[in-house]
Design a protein that fits this description.
The protein has about 400 residues and is an alpha+beta fold. The protein folds into 2 domains: about 180 residues, no CATH class; about 180 residues, no CATH class. It is about 55% helix and about 15% strand. The protein is built from 15 helices and 10 strands. It has a 6-stranded mixed β-barrel with strand order 2-3-8-5-7-6. Strand 2 and strand 3 form a beta hairpin. Helix 1 crosses helix 11 and helix 11 runs antiparallel to helix 13. The longest helix is centred in the middle third of the chain and has 39 residues. The protein is elongated, with a radius of gyration of 34 Å.
């Protein structure tokens, strides 16, 4: 009998006319593993693309210079101002008090130029300048929940008392990762001075964001500022290093979830192997018949290999569709915990990676039982069929066979 792939494919198609009943577990195991890996990497790619798209807003400008403990001197500020618009932001941690309760907050003092990039959104559509005027403050809604406050109430930080004018709905340059020490408390420079918290030795971070008049000189000015101010212990960054904490968190989370997906694929591989064995066991008469008609082990292997490959492709397509849909289905939930908007899309890289893992899992766990079945001689297969039939018979049939053998003459 010929052993060409075309004949094997025709035989495989005839075998598959009976439906997918024997491949349900196989499809489920492969599809779940592929979907898990595709979903994890699709979400990761959507987040990373969103960071790259909004890098300027997340960074606060084209360039940024950060100092700790002491602010930049007048000469350095003049140097920054010569490059374009400058915004000074001061950050520190403090305790906010109200109604006998207290909570740790991330204090942030901003000037009138803030934000240089991106859009700040407050509750009620209030302008930031109006919210911070005359001793006002803007806080995250979680702070109100912790202290049982509402917009319009007063809250104390250090020596200062502030009126809560609005809640912070969107802060374009806050991308520290998935965790923070406390809710945001935003005020202006005058408010920060009234707190009395700016003291020698206080852990204060001064950030000078620069929106260049000539964006084409970003790299050159970045190098110049880094060469001039790094020796003072200052840090100079560009938009390429926007949201480093978030990037690192996403990379670690992606790695962890990928390992989880791989573990699920390996566990699912056991189900794949069992499903293939069960299917081949159900097709023992057909395999034995092919062998008796002269089919070589190669032809038998190709015939059932084509079946398994077809089911693998179907399972991979199902898994890819589910995995690619995850960012679209859970975009609102994901953006609740992420400081960036996801760049929704279908990314080929994650899907190809997931498909490769799915194909590898199917091959590794399907080939051994397939090869074993193809190599078995037809006589052994017929004996297996008879033995299986005997095992499945009822007590009456077993008793009848026993009486028959006893009554036969020796």
């Amino acid at each position: 009998m010929r052993t060409d792939p075309a004949l094997a494919w025709r035989l495989a198609r005839r075998e598959m006319r009976g439906g997918l009943a024997g491949f349900r577990i196989f499809l489920l195991c492969i599809a779940i593993g592929v979907a898990a890996i595709a979903a994890v990497h699709s979400v990761s790619m959507a987040v990373q693309t969103g960071i790259a798209r909004d890098a300027r807003a997340l960074h606060g400008g084209d360039l940024a210079v950060r100092t700790t403990y002491v602010p930049a001197d007048a000469a350095a500020r003049a140097d920054f101002a010569s490059l374009g618009r400058v915004s000074e932001v001061v950050e520190m941690r403090a305790m906010a008090r109200a109604g006998g309760g207290a909570a740790l907050v991330e204090l942030k003092a901003v000037d009138v130029a803030y934000p240089l990039a991106g859009a700040l959104r407050l509750s009620g559509g209030m302008a930031l300048e109006d919210a911070l005027a005359d001793g006002g403050a803007v806080v995250e809604a979680t702070l109100l929940e912790r202290l049982g406050l509402a917009v319009g109430d007063r809250i104390e930080v250090g020596d200062g008392s502030f009126a809560i004018r609005a809640t912070l709905e969107r802060e374009p340059d806050r991308a520290v990762g998935l965790f923070s020490f406390g809710p945001r408390f935003m005020l202006d420079g005058d408010g920060l001075r009234r707190t009395g918290l700016v003291q020698p030795g206080s852990l204060i971070r001064y950030k000078y964001r620069i929106a260049l008049d000539e964006p084409g000189r970003t790299i050159a000015e970045h190098r110049r500022l880094a060469g001039e101010y790094t020796e003072r212990g200052w840090r100079v960054t560009g938009i390429g290093s926007a949201a480093p904490g978030l990037r690192q968190t996403i990379r670690r989370l992606t790695l962890f979830m990928t390992l989880v997906g791989l573990a699920a694929s390996i566990i699912g591989g056991i189900g794949v192997a069992n499903a293939v064995r069960a299917h081949l066991a159900s097709r023992r008469p057909a395999i034995a018949t092919l062998g008796c008609l002269g089919a070589t082990p190669r032809l038998i292997g190709l015939t059932f290999g084509f079946q398994i490959a077809t089911m693998t492709v179907l399972a991979i397509l199902i898994g890819l569709a589910l995995g690619a849909a995850v960012p679209f289905l859970f975009v609102e939930l994901l953006e609740t915990y992420l400081p960036v908007d996801l760049a929704l899309g279908v990314y080929p890289g994650p899907l190809l990676l997931a498909a490769a893992f799915g194909a590898l899992t199917a091959a590794v766990f399907s080939l051994p039982p397939l090869a074993a079945a193809a190599r078995r001689p037809p006589v052994a297969l017929f004996r297996d069929v008879e033995a299986a039939a005997g095992e499945g018979a009822g007590p009456a049939a077993v008793l009848a066979r026993g009486l028959k053998h006893i009554s036969e003459p020796t």
